[in-house]
Amino acid sequence: MKLLLGLLFLWLCSSEGHADHLEEQGKLKALRSFQFSCEQAMLPKTRSSSVHALRPADINTVTAIGSLQRTPGSGIHHEDPPQSTGKSLLEVSVETLAALISSFNPSVLHQSPLLGTKGATSESQAIDLLNQTEEIVKLMKENKMMDFQNDWKLITVFFSAENPRSSCASTEVKNCILDNLEKLKAVLDFLYKMVPKAFINLVDATELTTSFLAGQDYNNNSNPGWNECNHVGEHSTLDDNILRWSYQDAWEKLLNSERYNQKDDFTVVLQPSLQETNLLHRLGRGSFITTSKVQTETLEEDYASMAVGLWNNMMEPVGQKQPYSDTKMLQVHCPSQENPYLFTYRNSNYSSSLETSNTKETSQERTYGANISCSDRRPSDTVPVSVHNLKPADIRVIGALGDSITAGNGAKSKRYDLLDVLTQYRGVSWSGGGDESLSTVTTLANILREFNPSLIGYSIGTGRQDTDNASLNQAVAGNHAEHVPAQVRRLVDRMKNDTRIDFQTDWKLITLFIGGNDLCQFCSDPVRYSPENYTYGIQTALDMLHREVPRAFVNLVTIISIERLRELKAVENSTCPKWLMSMLCPCVINPEDNSNELKKLVYFNKMYQERTRQLVESGRYDTTDDFTVVLQPFLLNVSMPKTQEGFPDTSYFAPDCFHFSQKSHSYLASALWNNMLEPLGEKTIYEQLQAAVVIKCPNEAEPFLKTYKNSNYTYPNQTPNYGSQLLCEDRSPSFPPPTSVNSLKPADVKVVAALGDSLTAGTGIASDSLLDLDTEYRGLSWSIGGDASLANVTTLPNIFREFNGMITGYSTGIGSENDSNAFFNQAVPGAQAEHLPDQARNLVRLMKTDPRIDFSADWKLITVHIGGNDLCNYCKDLDHYSAENFVRRIQETLDILHSEVPRAVVSLVEVLDLVPLRQLFVDTEVRCPTYMADYLCSCVLTGEENSSNLMKVKEATRAYQLGVERLVESGRYDTHENFTVILQPFFRNTKIPLGQDGYPDVSYFSPDCFHPSQKGHSQLAKALWNALVQPVGQKADSFDFMADIVLDCPTQNNPFLGTYKNSNHTFVPVVPTNEPTEVIVATFAAF
């Protein structure tokens, strides 16, 4: 039968097992949240003789060892629940594990972990782990309630490589790791020798200890030596991750060595590290010091969650264990009938992927040199004064900025020496290194030294950015784009203080490559690592160089398409440390294939590339003749190098499978050099990393490093003009003023207004980023905006202002519908047809009370467009968004205007067919935020091409259009001469714009690729104007974003806005009724 966890813990209320204590004292509150239902197991007749067949029911005693205690007390007893005074992780884990085991063996005991003296400092009172182990074993031996020799014991060892008592005097990181490993081995050796019948859980609590220490006052003199191992010198996130992995690597090798598997009654299993839980930040700040009962209970829940996670992993084979979860309703796992035992290395049939790391490197050391056959290596006859006349030999100073790639991390590391990735081999760095010569080491500096042997600034050997060896290679491992300005500051200071450099007259080459760490962490903080902030960091750095460094040629290398690193993790039996890869670059490595998270990564990556291109092509850095920034795009689309068997070739990577090996650095150097010699617009974008790169020579006729000027390259216009030209000769109003809506000339219109959704509100029209998408650029809106004039902003009001300069009602600037500058633009982002009647009422109220218009006498043009949001939600509620309801809501809106607004033309634009927009979100080559598809318009932009939901939306789109058409053509709104509704059908067939490459042209859209940009609104405004002057029956029923739309003019034969009557258009009349929807809906059955 099934046992509920709540019933299980009633046994724990007291040593006598009375249940009433549980309710009286509120004990074990933290343990009630877990779902537990296992088949009740009978106590086995015989206990297991092998630890590799150990069942939960075989366990008699549970205890733990570690340095995470907070209150005194010890002794063996039956389970006693955690108290409201607060208990440590060790205490709660022991009690939780014992409680779970009690469902299989009710007589299980738990040995409370040894605790330090309350109030004492960790430095003075913490119990040494080995001494603690000896004391625990002594207590178990002395306990008369257990048979020490024959009872099975579950012992969890919480070991921290960040122990506050660490005394790593050496600055060698490897020595620190070995020292900690020896301490752990001493503990495990003692248990192996002295404790029979034991299953040992080894849990890395490093991160928990670090989180706790991070929350303390580090200035406390009583704890001066904490965390010495990881604070020898300056450490980055890269250092921390490599060290953490190295500890895990060392421990797993230790356990996999079978050192503790020689006996059949003893084993040690490394369980997942506590660093993999999201609880640590909260625990770190309150795990040892609590101030309230609520905080204490919350911590108990968190500790219990970790303990249940530990239990669940004991039920999982080695190699299949899962990270701990912070879910409050954890499902407690049960032993299976097939595998009723706790998993060990042996019964898991586990072979470590790290076994290969014991293999000796057999390949011969090779050089990565190159030959250069350039005959002309001379400098200019006189030192050039223009950056556009700069020969390679004219470069006297070289510098580099960036992250660990440019710092050279792991570039010369042996294949399995992962800890050596922390070494920065700056001397072989692709853009800044200068070890040996080009014949043995290919770097940009060594290539330049073939032209000018007196080159200054390259780095040699190893070391961090603050060493003499680094010279002007000021790249910092772990840096993001936001840190580059600080690198520039150090670079400039070093150049100014170097007596070998004539700062004012020497020509300088500086290479900047940054962004990998931004992409690796963007998902943790999308705002901080947004494309805009990424570009801003680069812009700030380039601005500093432009302002402070004379005579400089700056290479800005485009960020690589980083998602291809995922291929290294995807390969089975790969030697890559996949867990470490996930730590180093979680936002790239961890997302599932085809997930929104992966789509978001691809989008951010493409936008990083696009924004840097726009920055350089803005001409911002071409204002003086002695400075330029050139974008070098050779890494734009480079693919993963492959072996002959088609697998990722790890020889191009450092042992962490993240940083580049010297082999790749050589390739990067050659490719960068070649890009520098190639004209803008003709630069090579390499597709294969392993392709041999032949080092090019300067063209004898044009021997200069290529810039926009000496390439005869014109940057695209960064401030396009979206104005239009109106060629109409007759712009006069009617005389006398018209009394009929069917005799209305454009100049007769005195008031414009609009109703609708985000399209009319102007959402994102001029936005540069997704962060700005909430901005409503009403002054640029296609149907109602009035910013500037038609010469530079094409909108419907600006066209009408060419006929009547006194027209009013248009919106300007930015803001919501409630702002005064919105005027009669009452559109609301997110609005659906059901919201339109309220917009109409607000518009009528504003018109009646605005002193600037003569409500009764002025002719008004009101543009209405709605329905996109209805279609985007259609598949979620077919009834609510039915065509019947849509038409009914449109009718209610038009009825309000018909009854309340005299002298009005209502231009009703049919609902836009949204389905073609899918092309922007399906094509992976398009720079669109595909991860936002569900948020923007889930019923249209997501799902398969022929899905039932999409088919329903297509049917609904046509039903919406036909339903509204029948409503308008019913004659309901042509009952008097001063009002009419004109249907504009040009949205029935929409054509997505395509660029020369065949992919959608996103310049017509805002950054979300859903709302039109100013370029798109300009086209919409032209189409709307032309529809207004086209006779009914001859109106366009399609719209092409890219069409060269010429503004039509009224003719002598047709000088009026086209209405049904003045177009001599006939349609089957339908007698208007108060409730025509039944008539309209009845026609839908045919569609």
Automatic annotation (TrEMBL):
- State the top-level EC class: hydrolase
Q: Which residues form the signal peptide?
A: 1-19
Question: Recorded GO terms, molecular function?
Answer: phosphatidylcholine lysophospholipase activity; phospholipase A2 activity; retinyl-palmitate esterase activity; triacylglycerol lipase activity
Role summary: Calcium-independent membrane-associated phospholipase that catalyzes complete diacylation of phospholipids by hydrolyzing both sn-1 and sn-2 fatty acyl chains attached to the glycerol backbone (phospholipase B activity). Has dual phospholipase and lysophospholipase activities toward diacylphospholipids. Preferentially cleaves sn-2 ester bonds over sn-1 bonds. Acts as a lipase toward glycerolipid substrates. Hydrolyzes fatty acyl chains of diacylglycerols with preference for the sn-2 position and of triacylglycerols with not positional selectivity.
Topology within the bilayer: Single-pass type I membrane protein
- Entry's Gene Ontology cellular component terms: brush border membrane
The record ties this protein, via InterPro entries, to:
GDSL (IPR001087), Lipase_GDSL_AS (IPR008265), Phospholipase_B (IPR035547), PLB1 (IPR038885), SGNH_hydro_sf (IPR036514)
| Family membership | Belongs to the 'GDSL' lipolytic enzyme family. Phospholipase B1 subfamily.
Origin organism lineage: Eukaryota, Metazoa, Chordata, Craniata, Vertebrata
Q: Which reaction does it catalyse?
A: 1,2-dihexadecanoyl-sn-glycero-3-phosphocholine + H2O = 1-hexadecanoyl-sn-glycero-3-phosphocholine + hexadecanoate + H(+); a 1,2-diacyl-sn-glycero-3-phosphocholine + H2O = a 1-acyl-sn-glycero-3-phosphocholine + a fatty acid + H(+); 1-O-hexadecyl-2-(9Z)-octadecenoyl-sn-glycero-3-phosphocholine + H2O = 1-O-hexadecyl-sn-glycero-3-phosphocholine + (9Z)-octadecenoate + H(+); 1,2-dihexadecanoyl-sn-glycero-3-phosphocholine + 2 H2O = sn-glycerol 3-phosphocholine + 2 hexadecanoate + 2 H(+)
The protein's location, in the record's own words, is:
Apical cell membrane
Q: Which SUPFAM superfamilies match?
A: SGNH hydrolase
Which protein, by its recorded name, is this?
A: Phospholipase B1, membrane-associated
A Pfam family annotated for this chain is Lipase_GDSL
Q: Where is this region: Disordered?
A: 354-383
